[in-house]
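re: that chain from earlier
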Amino acid sequence: MNFLYKIILIVTVSLPIFAQSNSVYTRKGIGDLVYSFSARRLGMGQLGVSVPDEDFISTVNPASWYILKRTRAEFSIDYNGIFASDNLMKKFYTDANFNGVTFAFPVSSLYGISAAFGIVPYSNVNYEVVEDVKSSSSVIGDYTGNSKGTGGISKIFLGSSYLLPGNFAAGAAFDYYFGNLNYTETITFVNSQNLSTVYPRKYSPRGIGGTFGIISPDFAELLNSDAISNLRFGISLNVISSLSTDTSLISSSSLDLDTLGSGNVNMDIPYRLNAGLSFNLEKKYLFTLDYIFQPWSQYEFNAKSSDELVDLHKISAGFEFRPAREPGASIWEEIIFRAGLSFERSQYYLNGENIHQFSIFGGLSVPFSNENTLDIGIQFATRGTTKSSLVKENMVKLNLGLSLGEIWFIREEK
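^ sequence. v structure.
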C-alpha cells in the first residue's frame, strides 16, 4: 500500500496536467476534446461506456466502478505527432505530456459501492500559425503575424457507484472544471521604425459539473447462447454548469504595456451524451460499439455563439482479447490485445467545410504481477482537408500507462 501511495503522490505533484496536440483546429472553441485518458480506452477506440471492468478505471461512465474488487490507481503519458499540410507546405510537430491520474477502491461488493477520484484533461489547445503579410501601405510596410495558443481545461472528479435492483448499475461523479486558455497574437514589422506588438489574451474558466451513468444487467441469457455473455447496454451524461471565466487582453511593445480589457464572463459548454453496447464472445473476446453526441452549436462565450462550431457526432467500435488466467502461465501468455476504429464529425466547421476525423486504434497490456499492468495504446488518425484553404492533419498518438492494484481496507480475521 505504501508503494502505491508514493507513486500516486509523486506523479500528482511533479508533472503538468495538460496534454497538447499542436493542431491548428484547436484555435476554435475550447480546443480538442479528450474522451478518455487511459491507454486501455485508447486502444479500444477511446470509449466503452457499457463495459464494467474490475481491472481498469473508466472515466466515461461512473457506473462501471461497481465491479471493482481491489484498490486501483492509473496514470498515463501521451506522445503526440502531427503531419500538417496545406496547399503550400508541410510540417511535423511532436510533444509529450503527462495525461492524468485516477484512483478507485471498492467499499461494498454486495451493493456494488465503489468510490473513485482523479484529475484528467477535458480539452487541450496548442497551435502556432505564422503568416508573412505583404502590405500595400508604404507607411506600415510588410510584417509577419504569429498566432499562438496553449493550455486547456481539466477536471477533478469524485464519485461513486451503486448496484440497483434488477442488477442495474448506476454511478455519479461530481466534477470541478478549471484551466487556462492562452492566446497570443504577435505582429513583427519588417520596417524597423514600426514597433512590434504582442497581444496576449488569457481565459481562466472555473466551475462545476456532473457525470451520471447506468449499465444494464447481462441480457445474454435472453439469446440462449453459450458463446455470448455479458451483453450489456450503457449510457452516460456529462453536464457542465456555466463556467465563470476571468479574461484579460493586453497590448505590449518595447515602449508600452497596456491592459486593453479585463473582466469576468460566462463560458457555456454543452452537455455530452454517450451510449453503447458490449458483449463477450467465448469469454475471451470483448466487442464494443459506442456513440457520442455533443451539441457544440449551443456553445457560448460571453453570451455569443460561434458559426465555426457545430454538433459533434462520433461512433466507435472496439475489440479486446483477454486470455484466461491460468496457474503457471507466463507473462507473454497473459498479454491483453486491443483494436478499434472510429469516425467523428468534429465540432469544427471552417470555410464551409465540416471537419471529419477517421481513426484506427491498437494496444496491449503487459502484466508484471497479478494485478498490475503496463498499458500501451496507439491511435492513427486523419482529419481535415487541403480544400478551401484548410489544413489536413495526419496524427499519431502513443499512450503509455500503468494500472496498479492492491488490496486495501480488508478487515483482518480475528
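The helical segments are 2-14, 39-43.
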